[in-house]
Amino acid sequence: MIFSRGKNHVNKTGVKGSYLLVLRLNARQRIAVGGLGRVFFPAGWYVYVGSARGPGGLGARLGRHLRTGKPLRWHIDYLREKADVCGIWASPGPENREHDWAGQLRGEAAASMPAVGFGASDCRCAAHLYHFRRTPTETGLFDRLAGEPDRISGPSPAGPFGPAKWGLTNL
Asked: What predicted TM-score, i.e. pTM, was given to this entire model?
């Protein structure tokens, strides 16, 4: 099961949807990010917006984001090697909320954009990654997003970040 809250249940492989990956970078860094080149990332919290429309759905996509040491393919893979995943929010279903959420994040007063085009090379969004100095949950960010994404259970505070710690199966 990926998550269960209220009326939303995702309990099978292949469920498609949109998601928000919350990451924490403990120290500022310059990171080489594929075609974007070297990008300066301030320390703090990041929210990355994506969608899972392929045959593996949310389970496969989120499982990939939780793994480290994988081939670096997408912009987020480069940041993920340096930053810890601290939360995942998702909205399963046929609606693609990815671009709406990216637009809403861009309009947040507390958000900044570390790199134009990050995660958005296949669309017209300014970026799909936004930086926050404070924990995004403290600002009520996720309550304001269209489609009311649900939080997926987080990892054990003592353990490493990985699919098993998140309760993700069928990855």
From this structure: 0.83
